Amino acid sequence: MFEHPITDVFFDLDHTLWDFEKNSALTFEKIFQENNVSVKLEDFLEVYVPINLEYWKLYRENRIEKSELRFQRLRRTFDAVGTTVSDDLIHDLSLEYIAHLPSFTHLMPHTVTILEYLLPKYRLHIITNGFQEVQEKKLKGSNIHHFFDQIINSEMAGVKKPHPYIFELALNKANVDPVHTLMIGDSFEADILGAKTARMQVLHFNSNKESDHGECHTINNLIEIKNIL
Fold first, then answer.
1. How far apart are CA 184 and CA 173, in angstroms?
2. DSSP alpha helices (H): ranges in the chain?
């Protein structure tokens, strides 16, 4: 399946190993209760999830700053569901969301099984667009930090996936030739196309049910990696 032997496997974190949607929902449930925000969680999330993805795309493309991402995704969602929330409260909620999000530790199905399977055979690393202050907490809180050699985030690199530099930085820190690496991630644009630009081999974990493509092999469950590596 792969053109060259693999020595190093790089993973994305959110939506790939760490169950972002489940942990995010639990975080909103907590902060809404604590701040007496009257909104039905299911209705909020139905609107918030696509808006959040939209703003992350803008953030990846350097069209908005981190502060705007954190504020506007909430402002837009509350406006759309017709819940009146002041700007001050949205600011507080955005801070509380980031503070509490890493405290929830649900992983994607079979994450630990696959990491334990891969670790004796390959060096494992993380390349993430997530914010530096929360990604380490997520890894440690969910007890998977010890699996990884290099952990590269976009704030450290100064650019975000799919920019080739973040992949090049990760390859340099791991001291490995890209042809002997495999990038596994959920985002076709950020992880697959980005890593291919850096000459890495790629495997798409399509947890977001993105459209079919012919760029690489696709899996729908991490346990399928056992049949590949």
1. 18
2. 20-34, 41-60, 66-81, 87-100, 111-118, 132-141, 154-157, 164-174, 194-197
Q: Where are the alpha helices (DSSP H) in 61-123?
A: 66-81, 87-100, 111-118
Looking at residues 91-120, what average pLDDT do you find?
Answer: 97
* CA nearest to 9, candidates 165, 164, 168, 118: 118
Domain range 20-103, its CATH number among 3.20.20.80, 1.10.150.240, 3.30.420.140, 1.10.8.50: 1.10.150.240
Token pair listed for 58:
């803008």
Closest CA to 72 of 25, 43, 61, 58: 58
Q: What is the pTM of this model?
A: 0.93
Q: Is the dihedral of CA 110, 115, 116, 118 positive or negative?
A: positive
Of 129, 20, 19, the C-alpha closest to 66 is 129
pLDDT level of residue 190 (50, 70, 90 thresholds): very high
Q: Where are the domains of the chain?
A: 8-19+107-227, 20-103
Give domain 8-19+107-227's CATH architecture.
3-Layer(aba) Sandwich (3.40)
20 vs 106: CA distance, rounded Å? 8
